[in-house]
Amino acid sequence: MTTVMVVEDDPAFLTRFCGIVGSDAELELFAAVADLASARQSMSKAAPDVLLTDLELPDGSGIDLIRETAHRCPHTDIMVITVFGDEDHVLASIEAGATGYILKDSLPQEVVQLIKQLRAGGSPISPVIARQLLKRLKPAAITPSTPGQGTPLSPRETEILGLVAKGFSFGEIAKLAGVSPHTVIAHVKKIYQKLAVHSRGEAVYEAGKMGLI
Amino acid sequence: MKLGRWGSSRPTSDLPTLRHPPAVLRLYILALAMVLAPPQCVAETDALVLQLDRADFVLSDASEPPPDEAAWIPQSLPDNWLVSHPGAHGYGWYRLQFELPRDPDQLYAACVPLLETFGALYVNGAYVGQTGDFELISRTAQSSQPFAQGAPPVLLGFPPRLFSIRRDLVHAGSNTIHLRVWVKPGTRGAVSGVTIGPEPLVHAAYDHRVFLTVTGPRMVVIGSAGFGIFILLLWLRRRHETMYGYAGLTALTFAIFIAGRYVVTAPFIPLPYWGLVVWSGLEAYIVFMCLFALRYGGWRKPRWELWLWAYLIVSPVIDYASFVGIGGWVPQQWWLMTFVLTAVYVAIFWTIAWKRRTWETLGLAIAGSFKLVISANERLLAYPIELPRYQPYAYVPMFVMIGWMLIDRFVRSLNESERLNAELEERVAQKHAELARSYERMQAMERQQAVVEERSRLMRDMHDGIGAHLISALSLAEHSEGAGAEVVVALRECLDDLRLTIDSLEPTENDLLPMMGNLRYRLDERLRKQGIDLEWKVKQVPELACLTPQNVLHILRILQEAFTNIVKHARATTIEVETGLDQDGKHVYIQVRDNGKGFSGERTGRGLASMRHRAKILGGRLDIEPSTAGTTLNLRLPIS
Question: What is the pTM of this model?
């Protein structure tokens, strides 16, 4: 059983997502809340397997919730609910610790499939976001090697991201790279985590520069 | 007759004020006072040295001192033959007497500071020495060019004379000195008082006199000639500064005049011609000084200058007549013109000084006046014996002033050019900053312009795209009750369109594939549901310069339209998307091929026209090749 918590301030969508979760036998609703405070309270004792959260919450930003959860409950997979899946929102969420995103208007079966895929270790990624990741997580030679900060991409990860950026599907990439589709999406999730680590490192590096720590 | 750029048009604030005379002027006055101070009469400081200025004179050819019975007449010294014996030349004898309290115990000496002729000295009847070979000189004098009657004397630079006297020649009590002189025709005879005393003391006085009348003038001649050449060279490099040309000529002609009159003792050409050269030098000097004064004052007086040049050309002729005579015509007083012209330039200098009231102009006026004083003395005293001795120095203040002017202007122009340079640099820096500012302003404006354009594009887009879709969805919802599925489709189209717009806003960095990939990423799922396989056969293509958000949207719309057409009408099972470089290397192509039923008439219309129109905006071309095996859509985009 996979427990799913939904954080969404729009009651209609909250109901919709709860319904989608409830309709699948393998998924179980952990909690459904509409704001940051309730979400924190719900997760104060136990953590869900999957957290679905909107970014615009009435009492704060979903990014904060993602960061806290990623920090406190490393075993929770976090998915962002976004309207457009646009670069700004998605990248900010990934940097905070999310490893997947879901479009608000996704069909129920798509939502279930994404949750399961994520739980199985795979993350979705669009070509434009892949391109941004390639830019941010440059190979080790170029990144300044501050300990604990730089988690550069491996050659395989770079290759996969490059193919994603060209618009190839996971299946096509798997064929081109000679691996299973499952490996490809697992790589993507790892890359997401690297970005999160990378951006935390950068934050630490920045803070150090400013004399905060 | 324009004055040089260093000339009179300077702002007065730059000039040294009248309160503080230039240091160089003060130094010079001090030095002049020290050199020219009348020699302390040795007799005053030491009773052993006697200054004899009373004598008896007799005009006599006798080769030994004439006896006391000769026709001696009392004569005070200095004696100027031009005054006391006008027109006389040949031999003359002076007799001087002095008393000594006791026999001398050391070498004695007699100094004759001024002996403008040849002389022989006898003490108590005994011959002591002489300054030239009388017989030889008188013989050559006979053969030399005769002078015209009433010609002015030729003045030559005779040095002071020192005669050492054995101490046994003088004794306690009364002693007598005889001085034999020979005056050359055409020169003036002049004899000063005689200083007699112990040799070391007299020698000191003699040395002072040598410095004043021999060494000093030589220094002045050399310095003046060097100065003149220097200024002339300067003028050669700056021809428009005629003032300096005249200053250089002034110094050179002055050197000729002083050399001829005060330094050369034995002229190397016959005397009348020598006198001619010396006088011409003086006249040239004065004329050039007048011209210099005019240029210095910035006075435009072409007529005056013409007259001055005429004087300069005519004068030597008249001088020749004065010295040698031309057909019996011997002008007597032409030399007075030098006095007149000297007065002219002094007046010019004083006028300038009065008008400008600067130390420089005042200094020039005072320096110029020295000469006037000397000339006035010559005029009033008719060849005074002593005063002309100072004439060489009388011009020196002038050259010191001109030298000072030069240095002053040189330094000033240097400073000025440095200041101008600094100013220029500052101005360049200012302009630079201004440019940077206006560039920033322009950039800000451009940014603003871009924002405005982008906003209007989004507005247009929302209006034509999502707005239109929303309206059709709304009308569907209103008019066909229960047709929920249709409304859902319409709204999905609406959302698709909005996503397309948002995708077009993502930074592409001129990379075509991620942008196309995003479209695929959005459509893939839906196509799969329709049973359509999407084969992605893209190849890396060069960056496209045209990928602005607006153009990206055009491309995305074209592709979306193509997919929509295929889904709606073609009944295809496979779509191939291919990208690559065109054969011409200047275009990138995007090919969308389906295996549907092919192109048919119903698929023309607004959609296709709009696609072609967008391709045209992109600077590219859209080709559609229908066939029974499917349709190929080919979009060509320019690389640059």
Answer: 0.52
